[in-house]
Fold these 2 entries.
Entry 1:
Amino acid sequence: EAQVTQNPRYLITVTGKKLTVTCSQNMNHEYMSWYRQDPGLGLRQIYYSMNVEVTDKGDVPEGYKVSRKEKRNFPLILESPSPNQTSLYFCASSLVGDRGDSSYGYTFGSGTRLTVV
Amino acid sequence: SQKIEQNSEALNIQEGKTATLTCNYTNYSPAYLQWYRQDPGRGPVFLLLIRENEKEKRKERLKVTFDTTLKQSLFHITASQPADSATYLCALLTGGFKTIFGAGTRLFVKA
């Protein structure tokens, strides 16, 4: 089944304890991205990657890191989590269009609910 | 500043009626616009994409319009069913991979 898999689904951690949220897709998509979703604010883009070893900042990258060493995986790293990073996180992937753009719909994972206390 | 606005209030309609959801934007020149459905606790699911040079797109009971002069997209669900109850998100793609999402409109369809 074509899908984006995130782990874990739920995570409670303490301030300052490094964590990684994994994301893997089995559709051979070039593009992958991380979003956070907060009530009333919608989905906000954290980082995205257009291919292996190519990453760029979205609208809210502060406090996050990513890497794209393999095409299928795009982990999100919080080096020193803080309570304001408590949120629902989504990973998404997509094919790259003929014009080198994101003209296809995104496939989203099921989400990771992170609580930082 | 750049903004996308969707009706923040929930939309309540009767089964069988047409639901119309609005997405307005300012200070963007989007290359295309997407609509997604999101159920509670789940990831968004892609529904439709419409390009800047297209006025209307249809898929089964769904119809999307895109007016770049008014800076508005309308999303219609005809013959609505209780199973259509969800939050619907619009997303602007301004070229490349920059994607801006609206906060979504919650739709309730009563039987």
Entry 2:
Amino acid sequence: KAGVTQTPRYLIKTRGQQVTLSCSPISGHRSVSWYQQTPGQGLQFLFEYFSETQRNKGNFPGRFSGRQFSNSRSEMNVSTLELGDSALYLCASSPLGVGSSYEQYFGPGTRLTVT
Amino acid sequence: AQRVTQPEKLLSVFKGAPVELKCNYSYSGSPELFWYVQYSRQRLQLLLRHISRESIKGFTADLNKGETSFHLKKPFAQEEDSAMYYCALSGGGTSYGKLTFGQGTILTVHP
């Protein structure tokens, strides 16, 4: 099976702009989670979607939002970008079916730089 | 609240030496624990999950509920084991889509 894919791989934005990142999960996986990775804070959970519904949310401001489509593809949006939003954004998918463990499979990430 | 602590940011060993990467967790229920590894310029990938009790690339990890630990061990380290290692916890139930990660340990295996 193809792995988790994320587009774009790199982005440069200016403060105040908004950005949309995309994630395609492994075929058959219905859960998609998003994480922010920075040198200072490490890996932090943003939110998780399952069957087009946000099921879990991390401690991030409302500027961070997401959605999931019927084909399980997911997007996350960050509005009014701040310098501190510069990070690697990781998407992960999980099968979460009967008999499955809760392991997640990660994409390569989108490197966002805010100037 | 769930928390994962990896006390060592850096760990250096010589090839052939035993290695142990420490992980302690805090969670009130029955968590599921994982070890993820990130090799240079590669994506984060699952190494071990506690429920499978398997050995991957010579690594093992045992969940100790009494000590709330999930240490990763390998009896003979290899140079290709050099990477960043993350311990992660899933709370199960409705929060199983959320992984809480430790800060990571950079393992360097010297020749």
